[in-house]
């Protein structure tokens, strides 16, 4: 069993409209936009990052907003729900706030003994807030969300699978342990993690495979401290038979990717160098930042990309 992985690093999904996406995560959920850049493979499309004040690993939701993209079809082989941690006693505040902003799919319930509020994102994205005691991660407070209610970062992701067996074995191999199983859901945890250490596996043998589109999670990234640890994980995965990409420089972290047995695309991302490598912390997410290979496109992209505010 590996010990390098410390929990979630980020979750990347797709959207149909950049302005709507930006408004939802900043104005409604109160997260900070920590980076405004573009898709490495499609520079005419934004890559937007939202998280806490610094974009700490375990807090960052990222999006590729493809203009007018059709909706995804929910199903197996994907992350179905991305879950955020909020303080105990705050779900009443969030229920009122989300309702006042016209957010749909609101449903309060208890899972694994935790109070939870499910809701849908602008593209039908599956989200939930879970009350967590003593989650002391730093928070970003803005747009009417106080520190008593603010999102702390990720709590977990829930993967929908036709058969959880092989994915569970993979997670155990990379450092997770089974915490509990009930009602067709197996919960795993990485010990000594970064506060975003839970993964739920939902077994749905009779559900069709999902089809990606707006509202779908593209991939889920797990956190390692540095490139040395990442290479150790890469070697172990390849020795086990996984087809893992070479290390890719994503400007704010280094990444490797591979497909998990149940169909979910996994990434292993480094905590270094971080989102302040090209912007002062006080101004994260304000300027359009371009990867080196796309910097010559700045005049075109500044005219083409939709304004996020105003």
TrEMBL record:
Single GO MF descriptor: dioxygenase activity
Entries under InterPro entries matching the protein: Extradiol_RC_dioxygenase, Glyas_Bleomycin-R_OHBP_Dase, Glyas_Fos-R_dOase_dom, VOC_core
Keywords: Dioxygenase, Oxidoreductase
Keyword match Oxidoreductase: yes
Pfam families: Glyoxalase
SUPFAM superfamilies given in the database record: Glyoxalase/Bleomycin resistance protein/Dihydroxybiphenyl dioxygenase
Entry keyword Nucleus: no
Top-rank taxon, per record: Bacteria
Residue span(s) of domain VOC: 7-132, 126-271
Protein name: Dioxygenase
Upper classification of the organism: Bacteria, Pseudomonadati, Pseudomonadota, Alphaproteobacteria, Hyphomicrobiales
